[in-house]
Amino acid sequence: MKKLLMATAATALMAGAASAAEVKMGIILGFTGPLESITPDMAAAAEFAIAEVNAAGTLLNGTTVTPVRADSTCIDAGAATAAAERLVTSDGIAGIMGADCSGVTTAILSNVAVPNGVVMISPSATSPALSTIEDNGLFFRTAPSDARQGQVMSDILMEEGVKSVAVTYTNNDYGKGLADSFEKAFKAAGGTVTISAAHEDGKADYSAEVGALAAAGGDRLVVAGYVDGGGSGIVRGALDSGAFDTFHFVDGMVSDTLTEKFKGELDGSMGQVPGSDSPGAASFEKMVGDKFNATGPFAKESYDAAALIMLAMQAAGSTDPQVYKDKVMDVANAPGEQIFPGELAKAIEILSKGGDIDYVGATAVELIGPGESAGNYREITFKDGKEVTVKFR
């Protein structure tokens, strides 16, 4: 099967290179599943970058980029792998913006991207395990590893004077990796984790899980889950039972959906989500206007991921992933002229003339180590039923 996929992908890529008229980019995200409420803005942001490049009409002497969406489901590795295989075999994509959740990203990378030599840039897969996965230089991410998020969470809680917490995490690579990263950092800082327990997504009742968390106790409940999944179920159960009245939320929970569901019930709770107060963030939001929610979780990271794929193609002079994969780090980092949202045409022009760019983008992109974001976070709190930004870290 893998040999068939490789042959089909190679044929599609050669055909695309010969015509130099169209190249397809896969947009694979969880359009269904526990993150379905934030996915539309992520896809729209990636397609916004594609539209910007197409409007310029100068990528590789007039090549048009066509986005092709596919559903990762966020949690079903088999379905995500099948969706990615269709992108490669049927659609002939030359790169993937995605996937989103860490488990399905790992499955797609190992089962489809690496065997077929396709570049992936994820805007939101944050598992620390992805830092060391065998990827043949094909995998990058514009969101920081949860190894950093765990430390940031610990710092916030310790600064707030919270010394003991219970932890609930979604039972997958993302949840487990983040919970472990946090626990290590929090204990090193002198904090106590009373319990660290997994929960499954999609259950109708979480009273047993909430009971175990309540029995262990803690000054606050850390919820490392999904806003459209078990994370919200745990919060609802904890509030209704009186087990906890303040929470700390990870990036998979922070969205408008969270405040819509719970409103003032979350006042006093906190959390963090990747974000930056860089000039690029502000210019991106201004460009987008009311087209979609530019401040939504991982929207900016999605714009940057799609932009990096296209700029790497231009730098390499090729849509072949085996060629342009070696240019992703080059266009993302110094030296070179800094490039912000709305300046993709300028970047293409510089690259076409043999110049260098330093893509800063909407999230102050800086790729380190194995091609992942160095990482900035927006610390939030909840007041009067609204999410409020405290500061950036």
List the strand order in the largest sheet. Answer: 2-1-3-4-5-14-13
CATH top level assignment of the largest domain: Alpha Beta
> Multimeric state of these chains?
single chain
* Overall SS class: alpha/beta
The CATH architecture category of the largest domain equals 3-Layer(aba) Sandwich
User: In total, how many beta strands?
Assistant: 16
Describe the secondary-structure layout:
Blueprint: H1 2-19, E1 22-29, H2 39-56, E2 64-71, H3 77-89, E3 96-98, H4 102-116, E4 120-122, E5 139-144, H5 146-159, E6 164-170, H6 173-188, E7 192-199, H7 207-216, E8 220-224, H8 230-241, E9 247-249, H9 256-262, E10 270-274, H10 279-288, H11 299-316, H12 321-324, H13 328-332, E11 337-339, H14 344-352, E12 357-359, E13 367-368, E14 372-373, E15 377-383, E16 386-392
Parallel strand pairs: 1-2, 1-3, 3-4, 4-5, 5-14, 6-7, 6-8, 8-9, 9-10, 11-12
Antiparallel strand pairs: 10-15, 13-14, 15-16
Describe this structure in words.
The chain is an alpha/beta fold. It folds into two domains: 238 residues, 3-Layer(aba) Sandwich (Rossmann fold), CATH 3.40.50; 139 residues, Rossmann fold (3-Layer(aba) Sandwich), CATH 3.40.50.2300. 43% of the residues lie in helices and 20% in strands. The protein has 14 helices and 16 strands. The protein has a seven-stranded mixed β-sheet, with helices on both faces. A seven-stranded mixed β-sheet has the order 7-6-8-9-10-15-16, sandwiched between helices. A two-stranded parallel sheet has the order 11-12. It starts with a helix and ends with a strand. The relative contact order is 0.14. The N terminus is likely disordered.
